[in-house]
Write a structure and sequence with these properties.
It is a single chain. The protein contains 16 helices and 21 strands. With about 450 residues, the chain is α/β, with parallel strands linked by helices. The chain folds into three domains: about 5-90, MurE/MurF, N-terminal domain (Udp-n-acetylmuramoylalanyl-d-glutamate--2,6- Diaminopimelate Ligase, Chain: A, domain 1); about 105-315, UDP-N-acetylmuramoyl-L-alanine:D-glutamate ligase (3-Layer(aba) Sandwich); about 325-455, Protein-Tyrosine Phosphatase, Chain A.
Length: about 450
């Protein structure tokens, strides 16, 4: 984590009172935005939220051990007896501090974005690079205009590689994040429909994702999904960078030549390693595709294929991303309840349909949020696209989930599609219907909290 004197911090962010702090050699260690988590020596960042202003907790932060606190100059009555660093804007100062700290580190940064799969890809890249370097990565969902600076400031001085996730919901957000993180390698996993409500079209989403290249150095590397026509059209217009592509198509720099899946993971070969297999302890062909980005990043940073193979075999995913768990009655539960869009929903369903050796296959699907004016159509299409020969039952939850059910009822026999608005009732009926060897996929946008369903049908250890 960042370790600097108060004087150095003040100079790094051009504090209003930097001159007054010129000789203050007290040490700041790390930053914190939550007084409940303050550690000795932290710099407290009093951010303004929807319902509260962190400035009212500055005194509490100092009492709990913070070495100093930022203070926005337009906030009245700064306590004169506390070690304050006065700034024009607290959030912008946090971002500037992260940017300056990044420039002082001798670290290789891999930035990862995409409509779907960026968190899993981040985890895979980090697992690969850890075979050769000291690695840190974005934890949890710290991937936005507040979280990314906190991630940068958490990096140790001797960290050799950092894998930074970049999320967005509007134009210009990736531009800000990439200019803070300044990645040496940028990865785009795909262009989907997530946040189409804010951006209006997949074309606009592609443009927003490509903002990640604005932070690349001259001759920096962009690794992107080459199967996406919107990226194929746009990337050649970006000057001063190198590119590598991955995907299913043989026109890519790296593509799979074979994939074998079971309910534990996937074994695959690539065009670059025809005689050597990789094992990925993660479900889903689409995760195999994204692992190709991790292979390309590893090769760019000097790893051997053997080191990459070991790294992929050791991947540990962030919670609620295709987690396979032991379910009640001898079933298997796939918890993918962290997020959902039409692209990721179809990919997860396809995974379940392709699982070999499983018993009945049951889907528990909820609302996909932030899809704009066509949200009902997107949900109906998911339902219509289900195969009643591969899927035995469909349970839906939520207002939009009913459109999935309506679409599914056009292709499923009566009694095999059930729609619910009451989560407790859904859980009760689902429990009554689970049998040994069933595989149950639970997936929806985060706001639906379908992890409650997954937890209810999972054996608790």
């Amino acid at each position: 984590m960042i370790r600097r004197t108060i004087q150095e911090i003040a100079e790094m962010i051009h504090a209003e009172n930097a001159a007054d702090l010129k000789n203050n050699q007290s040490i700041v260690q790390g930053v914190c935005i939550d007084t409940r988590k303050i550690a000795d020596g932290n710099l407290y960042i009093p951010l303004k939220g929807r319902h509260t202003d962190g400035h009212q907790y500055v005194g509490d932060a100092i009492r709990k051990g913070a070495a100093a606190s930022l203070w926005q100059k337009d906030v009245p009555n700064p306590p004169a007896h506390l070690p304050l660093i006065i700034v024009e804007d607290v959030l912008k100062s946090l971002q500037e501090l992260a940017n300056r700290y990044r420039s002082q580190l001798r670290v290789k940064v891999v930035g990862v974005t995409g409509s779907n799969g960026k968190t899993t890809t981040k985890d895979m890249v980090a697992a690969v690079l850890a075979q050769k370097y000291k690695v840190q990565k974005t934890e949890g969902n710290f991937n936005n205009h507040q979280g990314l600076p906190l991630t940068i400031l958490s990096l140790d001085e001797d960290t050799e590689a950092a894998v930074i996730e970049m999320g967005m919901s509007a134009k210009g957000e990736i531009s800000l994040l990439t200019r803070i993180a300044r990645p040496d390698i940028a990865v785009i996993t795909n262009i989907g429909e997530a946040h189409i409500q804010n951006l209006g079209s997949r074309e606009a989403i592609a443009d927003a994702k490509l903002e990640i290249t604005e932070g690349l150095p001259e001759n920096g590397l962009l690794i992107y999904i080459g199967d996406e026509p919107l990226l194929q059209e746009r990337v050649p217009n970006i000057k001063g960078i190198r590119t590598k592509t991955f995907g299913r198509q043989k026109s890519n720099d790296l593509y799979p030549i074979s994939i074998t899946q079971n309910d534990e993971g996937s074994t695959f070969k690539t065009n670059a390693t025809e005689k050597a297999e990789f094992y990925l302890p993660v479900l889903g062909e689409y995760n195999v595709i994204n692992s190709l980005a991790a292979i390309l990043a590893g090769r760019e940073l000097g790893l051997s294929f053997q080191e990459i193979r070991t790294g992929l075999g050791n991947v540990k995913l962030t919670a609620m991303r295709m987690e396979m768990a032991e379910g009640i009655q001898g079933s298997k539960v796939i918890n993918d309840a962290y997020n959902a869009s039409p692209t990721s929903m179809r990919a997860a369903i396809r995974l379940v349909e392709q699982l070999k050796g499983a018993g009945r296959k049951i889907l528990v699907l909820g609302d996909m949020l932030e899809l704009g004016e066509k949200e009902e159509d997107f949900h109906t299409e998911i339902g219509r696209g289900l195969n009643p020969h591969d899927i035995q039952y469909v349970f839906t939850y939520g207002r939009l989930g009913r459109f999935i059910a309506d679409g599914a009822k056009t292709v499923f026999p009566d009694g095999r599609v059930l729609a619910f608005d009451d989560k407790s009732r859904l859980i009760a009926v689902l429990k009554e219907n689970i049998e040994a060897n069933d595989v149950i996929l639970v997936k929806a946008s985060r706001g639906m909290q379908l992890e409650e369903v997954a937890r209810a049908i999972t054996v608790q250890k």
